[in-house]
Design brief:
The protein is α+β, with helices and mostly antiparallel strands. 26% of the residues lie in helices and 27% in strands. The longest helix has 11 residues.
Amino acid sequence: MKIQKVTEENRAKVYALLRRAFPRSEYEAGLVEKLHENGKPVHDWVCLHTNKAIAYIAFSNAYNGKDVCGLHLAPMAVAPDFQKQGVGSELLRFALRQEQIKSQTLFVLGEPGYYKKFGFEPCRVPVCPFDKNNAHFLSLRNNATASFTVGYEPEFKSVAKAPRPQGKKRR
């Protein structure tokens, strides 16, 4: 297993992994593709095993108005056949040690029970526009005291508005 920065050469593997990890959604793969296409500052890593992408993590800018106030952790994915084996935890620990990440305020919209293991705490401010009452919005190294709605790169919303393909319904 090898963790490395995402490069143009392995982007297709990352997009394929995101589609496998989120089989009922085009959102995550579409988001990362748009962030890459539009040249947005993204800190992202992929975990490779036998030359196949098995895990991925990305951080993009978080905003207070027009000012960068930290980074959003999103998305994070592990291939279905490698889930519940510690791969995602290992990748997250690796990312949290990286120079670009280790001193930044971090935000994540996710499962509190999982992210609390890595030092993330429930977040009252800023307010997440995608999470009513900030029930699943957590932060790490957050010094915000004044209330504001945290901003995301525009790709987060533009992808959400894109039509999603209709698949077969499972019974």
